[in-house]
Amino acid sequence: MKSSAKDWLLKLHELDLDEPVRIMNVCGGHERSISMAGLRTALPENIELIPGPGCPVCICPEEDVFEAIQLALHEDVILVAFGDMLRVPVNVPKRDPRSLEQARAAGADIRPIATPMEAVRIASENPDRPVVFFAAGFETTSAPVAAMLVEGVPDNLLVLLSGRLTWPAVAMLLDSGEAGFDALIAPGHVSTVMGPEEWQFVVDQHGMPAAVAGFRPDTLLAAMYSVLCQLRDHECFLDNCYPEVVRPGGNPAARDQLTRAFNVTDANWRGIGVIPNSGYSLRREFAAHDARQQLQSYADDSRKRVGEMPPGCDCASVVLGKIYPNQCRLYGVACTPRKPVGPCMVSDEGACRIWWSAGCRDNVWEGRSNRESVG
């Protein structure tokens, strides 16, 4: 009989742990499930859950969002993007549009979409105008974009690609020697596409317990129980606690389409910097659909210097798991979902937005130390 969330909580409370344990949950979807279910308050006090860098909207480079805004404002194009991307702010003077949403209000033809096939439809319905698909996201979003290209798209559909891979960010944290966590909950949807084996390096190279989890409280708690038992028994391995969806090798068809459409490149992450082999770029075969090659360039290298987080915003520290969302000095003060200053307050996968939506409204910035008195 399958264990329920209540069963797993009882098992977690029965564990005899000598020391506090810090578990990072990489995925924004995991963080949403954890916060909305109130799991932090239900766990034993010595178990600390740390949100990780699993929000593609939060880490999308500011210069890419700026480029999309400029294309939409200055070229006769229809720009489409996944809905959350429309509200991501960039660092510009107050007189200028600071998001795609504001650029649309200023007259640009910008349309939110939910799937790549909507981009294909819009391009087919508007054959006389270029349609630019600003495609930001991790592997689960990038795979359908790759499939769209491989299967063939209208001549007027161009892609402004800002895809990222998840595991290199975790590798960067672990390689830094200052990871700040003792065990890892790996993302279920990414593992569904890429295979759980992508996370084997956590065990092999860093001697750290890891478990793949789904998004229900029971599978998340099962993964927590697994990594805690591994720590207790001094026996680390990669556990798959989402076997009904995650299979060895992932999805071969999706992985093949990613390989056929994209190259893996070094890539910039907002507020973090360049992470080796962490991004996607279009292969030469798809140059005719590369917005960066087919349209006037609005890329600006200076954006990489000024295009970090807005002044006072601590989103980068939140993404890296160094502080909790409500330890940002702007959280709930200048930055709210209605008027987001930083990207982590924009997306449903952003830790700040999740915490706010879950009812955490107290700002504890003053006198904080890393993740002090929060949990």
List the helices and strands and how they pair.
Elements: H1 5-14, E1 21-27, H2 28-37, H3 39-42, E2 47-54, H4 56-59, H5 62-74, E3 78-82, H6 100-105, E4 110-113, H7 116-125, E5 131-137, H8 139-151, E6 157-163, H9 167-175, E7 183-187, H10 188-194, H11 200-206, E8 210-213, H12 217-233, E9 238-240, H13 252-261, E10 262-269, E11 273-282, H14 291-294, H15 303-306, H16 315-319, H17 351-357
Parallel strand pairs: 1-2, 1-7, 3-4, 3-5, 5-6, 7-8, 8-9
Antiparallel strand pairs: 10-11
Helix pairs in contact: 1-12, 2-17, 8-13
Give a summary of the structure in a few sentences.
By secondary structure, the chain is α/β, with parallel strands linked by helices. Helix content is 37%, strand content 18%.
What does this structure look like?
The structure is a single chain. The protein has 375 residues and is an alpha/beta fold. The chain has 3 domains: 127 residues, 3-Layer(aba) Sandwich (Rossmann fold); 145 residues, HypD, alpha/beta domain 2 (Rossmann fold), CATH 3.40.50; 43 residues, no CATH class. It is 37% helix and 18% strand. It is built from 17 helices and 11 strands. It has a 5-stranded parallel sheet with strand order 2-1-7-8-9. It has a 4-stranded parallel sheet with strand order 4-3-5-6, with helices on both faces. Strand 10 and strand 11 form a beta hairpin. Helix 1 runs parallel beside helix 12, helix 2 runs parallel beside helix 17 and helix 8 packs across helix 13. The chain is globular and about 65 Å long.
